[in-house]
Recover the amino acids of this structure.
């Protein structure tokens, strides 16, 4: 952290002069169980990881936020108009404007600040760089404008709304919640507007496994339409059955209506709905396995989950493209693991990353094999960040 802080101080001083007043750290996240279930009111297991976005902040006495991010350039947002803008969709400006607007809604007065950021959560890496950046802004604004009054769960829900309404991505709440809360969390999204989370006291390292995330060489940020089609198709099935999301209907209802679903919505929508119910059962069983400290059972269930994502959810390929980097990575990972551990598509899918639980004695060979196929540094070994997004006055 010392090297990162020195780099940040230099970046801030070179651009803005002087010293900053506030340090914010916001980790990325890894989805451990629950592939595309959160937006349907389902359950997930997710954890914050030991890679973060770090930022230094200082009020500037103006009505403009100026933010410099190493490697991504600089943006400025004036605070006189905080409404969503169509021309800012999927941009950094949209996130800055949206988070400021949501604080204003709660009665706080947005004021300008200068900021410099350095990120180890790369965009399109499958570690939810957008959620990490949203919580970086949320914690900074909470400290600067609200005296830290807003709790982590509220900041997470504000960040999700910012991504949906200003940024333009129809995300669930899992990413923001994992980043905000830290640790490994079992989350239940069955109650709208409520973040029900329970910490799981489990250490994969002590159980003999490392969490490896492999970047497959395709930026899933370019496939927002493919991502958006998943909740859209699941919710189309729910609406055909008179509900809004799949958690409001039963699996038997979907199976009973399969002929109609297939005729009106197509086979992929039917398969994605069936995946939801299968994955819900697998999440519940994995929560039980982690509570019991049964890593072998957890891995067995994870392999079943990975197969469901590939076959039924179908988020391992990109649209109609013949390119399938995630599936190639999964196939290679299974060969390298040789029946040990487990591997699955990670997060949203569509070319971002895969996740593997690798025996500690096989990590070096596994990493070397994945790097040889997908490029140096493609395979990262991740630990759990137990604090979540946080702010510290300097």
């Amino acid at each position: 952290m010392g090297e990162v802080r020195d780099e940040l101080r230099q970046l801030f001083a070179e651009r803005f002069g002087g010293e900053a007043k506030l340090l914010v750290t916001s980790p990325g996240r890894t989805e451990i169980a629950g592939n595309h279930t959160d937006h349907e009111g389902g359950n997930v297991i997710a954890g914050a990881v030991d890679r973060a976005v770090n930022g230094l902040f200082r009020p500037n006495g103006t009505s403009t936020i100026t933010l410099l991010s190493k490697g991504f350039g600089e943006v400025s947002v004036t605070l006189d108009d905080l409404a969503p803008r169509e021309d800012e969709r999927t941009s950094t400006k949209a996130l800055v404007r949206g988070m400021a607007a949501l604080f204003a809604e709660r009665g706080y007065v947005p004021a300008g600040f200068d900021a410099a950021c350095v990120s180890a959560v790369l965009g399109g890496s499958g570690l939810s760089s957008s959620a990490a950046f949203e919580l970086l802004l949320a914690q900074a604004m909470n400290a600067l404008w609200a005296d830290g009054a807003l709790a982590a769960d509220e900041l997470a829900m504000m960040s999700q709304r910012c991504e949906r309404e200003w940024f333009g991505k129809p995300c669930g709440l899992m990413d923001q919640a994992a980043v905000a809360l830290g640790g490994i969390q079992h989350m239940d999204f069955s109650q709208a507007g409520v973040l029900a989370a329970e910490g799981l006291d489990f250490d994969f390292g002590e159980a003999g496994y490392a969490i490896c995330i492999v970047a497959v060489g395709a930026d899933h940020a370019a496939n927002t339409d493919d991502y958006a089609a998943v909740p859209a198709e699941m919710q189309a099935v729910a609406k055909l059955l008179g509900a809004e999301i799949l958690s409001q209907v039963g699996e038997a209802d979907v199976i009973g209506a399969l002929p109609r679903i297939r005729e009106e919505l197509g086979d992929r929508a039917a398969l994605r709905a069936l995946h939801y119910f299968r994955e819900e059962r697998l999440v519940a069983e994995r929560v039980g396995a982690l509570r019991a400290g049964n890593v072998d059972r957890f891995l067995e269930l994870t392999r079943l989950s990975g197969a469901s994502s590939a076959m039924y959810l179908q988020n391992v390929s990109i649209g109609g493209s013949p390119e399938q980097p995630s599936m190639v990575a999964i196939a290679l990972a299974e060969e390298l693991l040789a029946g040990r551990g487990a591997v699955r598509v990670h997060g949203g899918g569509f070319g971002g990353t895969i996740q593997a639980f690798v025996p500690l004695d096989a990590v070096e060979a596994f990493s070397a094999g994945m790097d040889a196929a997908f490029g140096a540094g493609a395979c990262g070994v991740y630990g759990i960040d137990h604090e979540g997004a946080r702010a510290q006055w300097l």
Q: What stands out?
A: Residues 21 and 208 are 41 Å apart (CA to CA). The chain has a mean pLDDT of 93. The chain has two domains: 2-201, 209-382. The longest strand covers residues 43-59.
